[in-house]
């Protein structure tokens, strides 16, 4: 429970962070700066887009605050991390996408009338850390990676630094270190990006003295049935042997345990990537029908056959650069495959990004592009037909948009083509036995949507891949694409479930590939 605000502050017109809402602008807060960091312009990494802060009041309640680009010059030199301030007048707004640094429903934005004045350190007791125990980390629910935590431990092991590429195409370093608490519980901490270089230099210079690491605003992450922690780009911070009261207490407790100077840091062999068979359990395999009926955000596996690939001018790939997201200094094509899969219980549309598509196809997008120069149809390489009508095991991300909207695209997180695993789980992936449905869907895509079952019966329209809104946004690319409705005809006595079409004009310009034949969906 949060501590009550002192009567002195309340009498001086100071508001509690927990009370902040959009009903007014004239909020008056007395807060400490828990975290202060910069966000770069996504189109120009050399330019600072905003300054971000996590603020905490006397009661311990926190709220996120942003200083937009136009106001950075005014406040940048005034505000410092871990110091106290009186701040007044804010724009209060809701959260957008991305990592949440605190649980508050709203966030603050500075604007032209915001005022800031520095206070003495004795204004109220301020601790910028909320350390959680090893037991609390392990008890955190899987997938709750928006819940950022602080952790403290003694560095006892490290892995080799490796190179990696994030899903957004960003190249960076990766380092695993192992932290031990006072009860000898060992927790793996995975570092990415700039934090690797910072820690690597300190670990290389370690002189045998114990190194106490403080990780601030890290994400819990489930790996090999254990919850570890990892940093979030920009937000997270680390401190090694800092001059903080909590660290002094921790070091004193370590010293009482015995001679730690001779223990050193152990080199640990990097753990191999988690295999699909290790990750899958009976509950995580679902059918398409079960996925469409999900009511909670989660991840799940499904066995599905690719029956079509969206086809247009470079629909299957996009140009990117290893140095910045927009200005393509080095032309490097990456996959972006919009496909339809089915498992016999239904069909869904999925998007397969670069790394997973490379696993499926066995070639990079640049190699496919170079090899398709002789194709008559330059917008669609024939090599992509190799994955049509093939069965894969897909790990999907089920988001709130997938749950709340009639038709959205599911993002693929991982893919396996291991025939033994697919064969083992194919029977589990269907919640009902519907023989011949896959063949009916394949036939429908090949013949323009007509599924003939019994001649002379009235047909009903089936809405497939319809959009419930005018636009759709992809979280990773940030691009907006017009909403589309694609319809098929199906006999009324078909076993395939159908939905009455909405009063929306169907798209007439969407082209799909099936079996190497190009077809325009009417």
How would you describe this structure in keywords?
522 residues, alpha+beta, 12 helices, globular, disordered C terminus
Offer a quick outline of the entry:
The protein is of the alpha+beta class and 522 residues long. It has helices at residues 7-11, 72-75, 134-138, 194-204, 245-256, 276-279, 288-292, 354-361, 365-371, 400-404, 419-426, 437-447, and strands spanning 28-41, 44-57, 62-68, 84-88, 91-94, 106-109, 115-118, 149-158, 162-165, 171-180, 186-192, 212-223, 226-230, 237-240, 266-267, 298-311, 317-320, 332-342, 347-353, 391-398, 409-416, 450-451, 459-464, 471-473, 480-482, 486-491, 511-514, 517-520.
List the helices and strands and how they pair.
Blueprint: H1 7-11, E1 28-41, E2 44-57, E3 62-68, H2 72-75, E4 84-88, E5 91-94, E6 106-109, E7 115-118, H3 134-138, E8 149-158, E9 162-165, E10 171-180, E11 186-192, H4 194-204, E12 212-223, E13 226-230, E14 237-240, H5 245-256, E15 266-267, H6 276-279, H7 288-292, E16 298-311, E17 317-320, E18 332-342, E19 347-353, H8 354-361, H9 365-371, E20 391-398, H10 400-404, E21 409-416, H11 419-426, H12 437-447, E22 450-451, E23 459-464, E24 471-473, E25 480-482, E26 486-491, E27 511-514, E28 517-520
Parallel strand pairs: 3-6, 8-15, 11-13, 19-21, 22-26
Antiparallel strand pairs: 1-2, 1-4, 2-3, 4-7, 5-6, 8-10, 8-12, 9-10, 10-11, 12-13, 12-14, 16-18, 16-20, 16-27, 17-18, 18-19, 20-21, 23-26, 24-25, 27-28
